[in-house]
Amino acid sequence: MDIFDKCNTDGGYFGYFRSRDDHFFSRPILDSLPGRTMVFNGKECIQWSINNYLGLAENEEIKAVAVEMAKKYKTSAPMGSRMMTGNTQRHIELEKALADFLEKEAAILFNYGYLGVIGTLQALVDSNDTILIDKLVHASMLDGMILSQGKFRVFRHNDMNSLESHLKRVNRDRKGGVLIVTEGVFGMQGDLADLPGICALKEKYDARLYVDDAHGFGVMGEKGQGVGSFYGVHNKIDIYFGTFAKAFAAIGGVSASDKKVCEWILYNARTQVFAKSLPLVYVEVLLKTLEIIRNDTERRKKMWANSKKLKAGLRDLGYHVGDVLSPITPVYVPIGDVQLGMQIITKMRELGVFITGVIYPVIPKGLVLFRMIPTASHTDEDIQTTVNAFRKVRDELNLNLDTGISAFSG
Ligand SMILES: Cc1ncc(COP(=O)(O)O)c(C=O)c1O
Questions:
Q1: Confidence of residue 406 (pLDDT cuts 50, 70, 90)
Q2: Which tens digit of pLDDT belongs to each residue from 168-182?
Q3: Which of 134, 138, 145, 282 to mutate to test the pocket of ligand 1 (most atoms within 8 A of CB)?
Q4: Residue 401 falls within a domain, yes or no?
């Protein structure tokens, strides 16, 4: 048996899509810059599938900084990891600015959100400690948990009874620390973690709380400080995590916490200690982006207004749109088999509306989820065109829109 034998099969992760390799459903090629419209298959489509919440992907001021800084620093600077030769005053300034924005003592930069989540969990949790993790968290937290070698328990999605019963059991013969791990906005279905409930439990059972708020950072709360601030419990989050790949429309991630905790992470997170530091062009871009996010509150307002309009328009047509408190617009449609889901996506794209679909095991069997992201860039006309396309597809494919999932969290 050769180690490469498996590569000739259609097994493995996403094997079905790998074997199709159609560039339509699997790794579609979008031939233009990210924005409210993008070119797909030679046609300009309204784009609902990128996490460009605040419309900053198209921002000209940020572009100007990027161009200027690429001239100044080239794309190579700095070289090496932060530990050795890759640290700069601007990295430290960005960390200070992020800590200030997030009202935490300190912050640590990472090159990718994914690496930040893994590095933070691996640095903080050791084999004596226990992670209590929500069943529906993003893969990065599961991978961080595995790398940490801590013990772990999975609680039912956003279920405080389930979390409490795990906390009780862990505390019975507790040896190390306990870290509750959750997403802030659950990125797929758009629902929010019950942070008030989780915070009450973490205090009662003497645990710590880590929140990966990839989809809430810059988006939720009056100032964009995330889901904790939306619920008024931001100061109870022990480690707040955000990525720059979504509302910030850039790349990288940040963990924010107490000074001593951040120093520990800085020296112990393997994904950062043993990796080249974030390029200076991005550090400068992120300083500018943060300034815009702090000062331009109109963007958040526009995004919320667009989210409300899109949700209302689709509900009026009879579509089941998850009743969520984030701007994410999760549209659930019953499908007998995957083919119908693919047909809907194909027709929508032919009508100039780019959506993507998610199926089991992410959501219950027999459904497709169209996870739509309204942004500050979308116009009323975009929303109207999209609603019209959903109407046409509903009628032409004679869709049954009754999901029968009122009890389901979506
Ligand atoms: C909840 C969550 N955490 C982490 C990540 C990884 O972030 P990045 O894309 O910046 O690596 C993602 C990206 O999809 C995410 O949704």
A1: low
A2: 999 999 989 999 999
A3: 138
A4: no
